[in-house]
Write a structure and sequence with these properties.
Among the domains are: 136 residues, no CATH class; 151 residues, 3-Layer(aba) Sandwich (Rossmann fold); 130 residues, no CATH class; 103 residues, Ribonuclease Inhibitor (Leucine-rich repeat, LRR (right-handed beta-alpha superhelix), Alpha-Beta Horseshoe); 73 residues, no CATH class. Helices cover 35% and strands 13% of the residues. The strands form seven sheets. It has a 21-stranded mixed sheet. The protein has a five-stranded parallel sheet with strand order 2-3-4-1-5, with helices on both faces. Helix 24 links the parallel strand 19 and strand 20. The longest helix is centred in the first third of the chain and has 38 residues. 40% of the residues are buried. GO terms for molecular function: ADP binding. Pfam families: LRR_R13L1-DRL21, NB-ARC, WHD_DRP. This is AAA+ ATPase domain-containing protein. Keywords: Coiled coil, Leucine-rich repeat, Membrane, Plant defense, Repeat, Transmembrane, Transmembrane helix.
């Protein structure tokens, strides 16, 4: 377990947390305030020298590397001391504010003098501290100048930071990745390869994981294997840890494997996978994690199972001894240049002007995709001019690279250039990401809170820290240092590439160690603690908090642990900024939580056992985020109106007695508690049905919150689909929602469990709205003309059973409908009969359309064919829908449980069609591009006409799931055989997933035909048992199987015959019969295994 101390700034923290103390709080307050500000400025002067020192050390461009390293450590230590002093000062000021003035007046004069003396002692102590720090910083700066360090002002505002907020990283797939993917799929699913294990081999950063993921996600792979498992490996894994990861990804319980041997874990895998034909994809495997017979037993569980692994370790290739090694080669120059241009965000004109200098840059990257993307991200921060690109090339000269990890020699220089060119504020944030626990998914809403808690975010131009942190996150993604997870195109989930971690982690660590107590392991640093395994009750948490080394803890995350009580020692963590107790069993928060005067983020999501929110929460005036989503305390004593710095409030629960003023028994808050919270950016209100009327709703004053971009308005949910609400009550619901009108800057709106008959008109006034979710609006019988929302990108309408007609436009409007809408999801609308038609020019950006459980809808909206980018459609449970046609750009179509669907036509570029339980579908035409069909029908006994007729599509891949009677009609000399014999691949499975038939056209002369008939064709009671015995014999050997499964019954029978009959003739006959059974089984075994 790595333990590390994160690099810590001072200036950013001081700014992010606000002033150390407001003027007038203490007799010495303003003076100390000025002293601290001067110290912050001095610390910033030191920061300007840090970049020069780090570059000299990395380039080996200095005569005194030890002195430079010592100088950096001294500066770091001084900054930490200043940071801690600021916290102590703020804590003392907060303690003074907590003493009520009225109580002070009642105290004796002696007490007043005692308190004044105490305050004087605090001020005196702070004064001594600031003097010491002042002397220390001046000495450090002087020493830095003596070492020849010069301020390096790295570009603070890069070109990519000025791009639009919805810009996403480029995902241009270069090279022959599609062709390489198809080659691998052919090897895995066809007869081209007889190897059970196929390896993708290549340099780090060459694109192995991307290729493996493309194979894993492809529908052809899904059709060929009944189970497809993905496992993320790591160089730090042991053999056992890798096996446990495979077990977990396969649906097993890795906790049960803790004390088991590797062989026993493999046996557990055999039990889980059973007779399934599976594909196991292992990403990033190393030689010391596997052996020659790795998972051999598991692979023999079902003929055709495969392992696909990626590795950069040649030792793996020797271990697996596979004939199938797929080497990923470097990119060609055109592909390199295309990737560089997209990574640097260049337009076509800039690409043409910079081609010649781009050749030199590509050579620096050795044609490796990761290196090109990272260096392209650096170039994207520059203006697209030759002189600025030349500066990057010049900067790359003169590096002396030492101690580079094996296999990283060809990519280290671009990564070092990108890293050491980061401005100091971005380097701090990225270093923090490098130190997060293994397997930690980097999500913007979480990591930005951690950055703020650590003090890495500096306020600028009246922008709040959350906005700045999001900008930093975006820039790290666009610089390609944070890498979006494959398949995630909105930056919401990121990782750091393993190669980047291997190269840069050593430079961000001060020390390593492993701590373990009572079976609990911790990721631990002086600033951040993640308890990422379940501790042994409260004792584990006490051990964590009572460590003296954690007295400066800034972030404490105990998500998912079994903690029930928060120990009193929590109150000593004066520096704590973030406390996450989500999904714990905590029963209550201690009153001493008010001692955490610097706490900014309190996350209590899904704390189902939490009974009370104490009044002391009201004193956490530094709080920026309070998250109670999924937590419903019985008693709420705290007040929120004093928390004026709150930017995020989730799980705000309206009090049951909202109509009763000043009630003493609250289980929520009155709406007026929201009014003073002017800084809110994200708000979730639960229980809007408890608001008595519009006037009370208006007390929240949402319209005046100029920073609010995310809003969720939720009523109390019910599972009753036939809920009855009187008409006057429906009107009250609408009036309450009218009173909750948000500002026009809103970008995300969700309305859930709403029981009014219509929605307020203010929805159409939200000119910046990008995502709208309407769910469980059971009594809504009409909607506003949502097509007028010109910025809307995602629209979800779910659970509106009264809605009969949806109209997108009003009669008088001439505006285009949904010009930016990308995804449209409609589901659970049992009464929906009609969708408004679209006109030419509407839906210019729609790529996905999903319709589910709308049984009365007879036709899709006309005009969908105008959508020039609509490539994917899924329709489920549209019982009355009869025709799907005229969609010229549709590539993927899924139809399921559409009982009256009879025709699919005029889809010229359709490539993939999935039909599930649509037994009336008989007409399929105008689908000349169709290549892959998956048909699932658990009832029908005849093949559909569209598959067997003269106009049947010529498919590459056909997958069918059906009854035995249906699948028998695909074997040679049947009607179905003529339909499938010219298809490249055919896979037929029974409803339980058992394989029935596999056909591969193979060679051009069509002679290579392979049919696998399931044991379930014949007598299941005998053949299934026999089939299992044959598989066991293939795994353990014939002799061992006979010994384990034949001899014990023989011994029991002989003992019975000897004791009961004593008839040796009968015993002889029985022995002869038994010998015949063993001989017959041996013959079957030899036939099966040889075939």
């Amino acid at each position: 377990m790595a333990v590390r101390r994160a690099p810590l700034p001072v200036g950013p923290r001081a700014a992010a947390d606000g002033n150390p103390a407001p003027p007038g709080e203490s007799s010495k307050g303003p003076g100390l305030d000025g002293e601290f500000r001067r110290l912050v400025d001095i610390a910033d002067e030191g920061v300007k020298l840090v970049n020069d020192a780090e570059l000299r050390l990395k380039k080996r461009a200095c005569d005194n590397p030890k002195d430079l390293a010592a100088w950096l450590r001294r500066l770091q230590s001084a900054k930490e001391d200043l940071d801690d002093a600021l916290d102590e000062f703020r804590a003392s000021m907060a303690a003074q504010r907590r003493r009520p003035e009225q109580e002070d007046r009642k105290k004796s004069i002696r007490h007043w003098f005692s308190r004044s003396s105490a305050n004087h002692e605090v001020d005196k102590k702070m004064k001594i501290t600031t003097e010491k720090l002042n002397k220390k910083f001046h000495g450090i700066l002087q020493n830095g100048r003596e070492l020849g360090l010069q301020p390096i002002k790295l570009q603070r505002q890069s070109r990519i930071s000025e791009f639009p907020g919805d810009l996403s990283p480029q995902y241009t797939l270069v090279g022959d990745i599609e062709q390489e993917k198809l080659k691998l799929i052919n090897k895995l699913t066809g007869s081209e390869s007889t190897s059970a294990v196929i390896a993708i081999f290549g340099l780090g950063g060459i694109g192995k994981t991307m290729l493996a993921r493309k194979v894993h996600d492809d529908l052809l792979t899904e059709s060929a294997f009944s189970t497809v498992v993905w496992v993320n490996g790591s160089k730090s894994f042991t053999k056992k840890k890798l096996l446990r990861a495979i077990l977990s990804s396969s649906g097993g319980k890795p906790g049960e494997a803790k004390k088991k041997s590797n062989e026993q874990i493999e046996d557990m895998l055999v039990t889980i996978l059973g007779a399934k034909k599976f594909l196991l994809v292992l990403d990033d495997v190393w030689a010391d994690q596997i052996h020659q017979d790795f998972l051999k037993v598991s692979l023999q569980a079902q003929q055709g199972s495969r392992i696909l692994l990626t590795t950069q370790d040649e030792g793996v290739l020797r271990q697996i001894a596979s004939d199938d090694i797929h080497k990923v080669n470097k990119l060609s120059f055109p592909d390199c240049w295309s990737l560089l241009c997209s990574s640097a965000c260049l337009d076509e004109q800039d690409c043409d002007a910079l081609t010649d200098i781009g050749i030199t840059i590509i050579q620096k990257c050795n044609k490796v995709p990761l290196a090109i993307k990272v260096l392209g991200g650096l170039l994207g921060t520059k203006n697209p001019r030759r002189e600025e690109w030349q500066e990057v090339i010049s900067e790359s000269e003169g590096w002396t690279l030492e101690n580079v990890p094996d296999g990283m020699e060809e990519i280290c220089l671009p990564i070092y250039l990108a890293y050491y060119s980061l401005p100091y504020h971005l380097k701090l944030c990225f270093d923090y990401c490098l130190q997060l626990p293994e397997g930690f998914v980097i999500r913007p809403q979480i990591v930005t809170q951690l950055w703020i808690a650590e003090g890495f975010i500096q306020e600028q131009d009246n922008r709040n820290p959350e906005d700045i942190a999001e900008q930093y996150y975006k820039e790290l993604v666009l610089r390609n240092l944070l890498q979006p997870e494959i398949g995630c195109f909105d930056m919401s989930k990121c990782t750091v590439h393993d190669c980047v971690k291997s190269l840069l982690q050593p430079s961000t660590k001060d020390k390593k160690s492993t701590d373990s107590t009572e079976g609990t392991k911790f990721f631990r640093s002086f600033r951040t603690a993640f308890v990422y395994k379940n501790p042994s009750g409260d004792r584990g948490l006490n051990w964590l908090i009572n460590l003296r080394s954690l007295i400066n803890l800034r972030s404490l995350d105990l998500t998912g642990t079994c903690i029930r009580y928060i120990p009193k020692s929590l109150e000593h963590l004066h520096h704590l900024r973030l406390l996450n107790l989500s999904l714990t069993q905590v029963l209550e928060l201690p009153e001493s939580i008010e001692s955490l005067s610097n706490l900014q983020f309190l996350i209590l999501r899904c704390c189902y056992w939490l009974e009370t929110l104490p009044e002391e929460i009201s004193n956490l005036v530094s709080l920026r985020s309070l998250d109670l989503e999924g937590t419903t305390p019985h008693i709420v004593l705290s007040r929120l109106s004093a928390l004026e710095q709150l930017t995020a409030l989730h799980g705000f629960i309206v009090d049951h007695n909202a109509a009763v003023p000043d009630n003493d028994h609250q289980n929520g808050w009155p709406m007026k508690e929201l009014s003073p919270l002017k800084s809110l950016r994200s708000l979730q209100i639960m229980g809007i049905d408890r608001v008595p009327d519009e006037s009370r709703a208006q007390e929240a004053n949402l319209a005046s919150k100029s920073h609010l971009t995310h809003l969720e308005l939720c009523g109390s949910s019910t599972s009753d689909s036939q809920v009855f609400v009187p008409e006057e009550e429906q009107d009250r619901w609408l009036s309450v929602l009218c009173g909750l009108q948000p500002p026009q800057c809103l970008e995300y709106l969700k309305i859930a469990s709403y029981y009014g008959s219509s929605l307020p008109d203010w929805i159409l006034q939200l000119r910046n709205l990008q995502r709208l979710v309407l769910t469980d609006c059971k009594l809504c019988d009409s909607l506003p003309a949502l097509g007028q929302l010109q910025q809307l990108k995602f629209l979800t309408i779910n659970g509106c059973p009264k809605l009969r007609i949806i109209e997108w436009r009003t009669g008088a409007t001439t505006k285009l409908v949904f010009p930016k809408l990308e995804q449209l999801d409609l589901s659970d609308m049992q009464a929906l009969e009609s969708l408004d038609r679209f006109k030419h020019g509407d839906l210019l950006s729609l790529t996905k359309f999903h319709l589910e459980n709308s049984p009365k809808l007879r036709s899709l909206p006309s005009g969908l064919g105008y959508c020039k980018v609509l490539t994917s459609m899924k329709i489920v449970g549209a019982d009355s829908l009869q025709v799907i046609d005229n969609l010229p750009m549709l590539k993927e179509l899924v139809v399921q449980d559409c009982r009256e669907l009879v025709k699919i036509s005029n889809l010229p570029v359709l490539q993939v069609l999935v039909v599930v339980d649509c037994s009336m579908l008989q007409d399929l035409r105008g689908v000349g591009g169709l290549r892959h069909v998956r048909l699932v029908d658990r009832v029908t006994k005849e093949l559909p006409d569209w598959l067997t007729g003269h106009e049947a599509p010529l498919l590459q891949i056909f997958t069918i799931v059906g009854t035995t009677e249906l699948l028998r009609k695909l074997v040679p000399n049947t009607k179905g055989w003529s339909a499938i014999r010219n298809m490249d691949r055919v896979y037929a499975n029974l409803p339980d997933g058992a394989p029935f038939l596999a056909y591969n056209k193979g060679k051009p002369d069509f002679q290579m035909i392979k049919t696998i008939v399931s044991p379930q064709l014949e007598d299941p009671s005998a053949d299934v048992i026999l089939g299992k015995l044959v598989r066991m014999a293939s795994q353990t050997g014939l002799a061992d199987t006979v010994k384990r499964y034949f001899l014990p019954p023989l011994a029991i029978a002989l003992v019975f015959l000897l004791l009961v009959t004593r008839d040796f003739t009968l015993i002889g006959v029985f022995l002869a019969f038994f010998a015949a059974c063993v001989a017959g089984f041996s013959v079957i075994y030899i036939q099966k295994t040889s075939s």
